[in-house]
């Protein structure tokens, strides 16, 4: 095979691998729904035993376990005998740092159906989710409590790395009270308050978003240091904080809506206060990285498309953030990447 055809084969292989991506995702979904990793545990188990515990047939179970092995989540030691790899252990719902809710949510048909209409959203700019379901994503969550609980759990799991990285990357000691706007179950704010014992906190979200917050705060011993306030950040945000933390919120919304949220933070920001935005910051020109495929760079742009089809928001570049901040009466003073929580950065803004 000459060099030209070798290059062609590699390029064709890239396309095939990407095309199989949705199948890999559904394999993860099946593993989580059937509790495969929990059933295997820390031992080596046969596919027949796992199948018996899962209420499944041995031969199809063997095929599922081998697919998971091919994905690097299990290891096959002898024919039909498997154990869990370090990566696979994150599919154990009982493990600290588990990603099971994240997998369930991001492979949930409610999220994936709108992707079938990506081309339509690109042509029109319309939100495919609204067309498919007849309502917007967050209203749909409010109408389906079980799905809302799953979404909250997925967001909590997704916030874990940032909750650990943010207090190490930024000095919160200058503040007295931090308000987490759209803070969900409080995972991120709990990380900050735990690292800075003198701080008080305000956790602010909708009633649905806050449903699991009391349990999170109690688990961290923060019930007395953090108040929980239900409300709508499109109408107002609570007064009394000198730092307003906004993580993974602005990318859900249009520029105009982002300006509204930031503007409400600006209205209550005291002298010397800060608005701290935690989101991916896209480069102005795509850096695909050294290898093609589903790289960290690619995942961020796929997230951008997910915002397009499901909620109507977008990921942003630094100039984009500077623009929405300026329109809200804020000025960006720094952008700090969070290497322990890629692809997130911390954007600091002042009045």
Automatic annotation (TrEMBL):
O-methyltransferase C-terminal domain sequence ranges: 115-330
Catalytic site positions: 251
Entry keyword Signal: no
Signal peptide: none
BP terms from Gene Ontology: methylation
Keywords for this protein: Methyltransferase, S-adenosyl-L-methionine, Transferase
Any single Pfam family the record assigns to this protein: Methyltransf_2
GO molecular function, one term: protein dimerization activity
Residue intervals of the O-methyltransferase dimerisation domain: 17-90
PANTHER family (UniProt xref): O-METHYLTRANSFERASE CICE (PTHR43712:SF2), PUTATIVE (AFU_ORTHOLOGUE AFUA_4G14580)-RELATED (PTHR43712)
Protein name: Methyltransferase
Native source organism of the sequence: Streptomyces alboniger
């Amino acid at each position: 095979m000459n060099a030209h055809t070798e290059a062609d084969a590699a390029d064709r292989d890239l396309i095939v691998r990407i095309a199989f991506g949705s199948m890999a995702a559904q394999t993860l979904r099946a593993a989580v729904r059937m509790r495969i990793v929990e059933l295997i545990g820390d031992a080596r188990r046969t596919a027949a035993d796992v199948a018996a515990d899962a209420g499944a047939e041995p031969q199809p179970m063997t095929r599922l376990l081998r697919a998971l092995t091919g994905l690097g989540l299990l290891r096959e030691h002898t024919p039909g005998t498997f154990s869990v790899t370090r990566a696979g252990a994150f599919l154990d719902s009982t493990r600290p740092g588990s990603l099971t809710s994240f997998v369930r949510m991001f492979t949930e048909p409610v999220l994936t159906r709108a992707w079938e209409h990506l081309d339509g959203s690109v042509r029109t700019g319309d939100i495919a989710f609204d067309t498919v379901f007849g309502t917007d994503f967050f209203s749909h969550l409010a109408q389906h409590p079980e799905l809302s609980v799953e979404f909250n759990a997925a967001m909590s799991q997704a916030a874990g790395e940032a909750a650990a990285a943010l207090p190490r990357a930024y000095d919160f000691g200058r503040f007295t009270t931090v308000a987490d706007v759209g803070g969900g179950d409080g995972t991120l704010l709990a990380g900050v308050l735990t690292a800075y014992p003198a701080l008080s906190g305000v956790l602010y979200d909708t009633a649905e978003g806050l449903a699991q917050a009391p349990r999170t705060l109690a688990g961290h011993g923060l019930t007395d240091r953090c108040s929980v306030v239900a409300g709508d950040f499109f109408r107002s945000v609570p007064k009394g904080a000198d730092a307003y933390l906004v993580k993974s919120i602005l990318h859900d919304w249009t520029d105009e809506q982002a300006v509204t949220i930031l503007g409400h933070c600006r209205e209550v920001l005291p002298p010397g206060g800060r608005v701290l935005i935690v989101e991916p910051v896209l480069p102005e020109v795509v850096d695909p990285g050294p290898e093609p495929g589903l790289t960290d760079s690619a995942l961020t742009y796929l997230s951008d498309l997910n915002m397009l089809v499901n909620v109507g928001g977008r990921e942003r570049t630094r100039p984009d953030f500077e623009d929405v901040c300026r329109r809200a009466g804020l000025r960006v003073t720094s952008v700090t990447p969070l290497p322990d929580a890629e692809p997130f950065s911390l954007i600091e803004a002042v009045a």
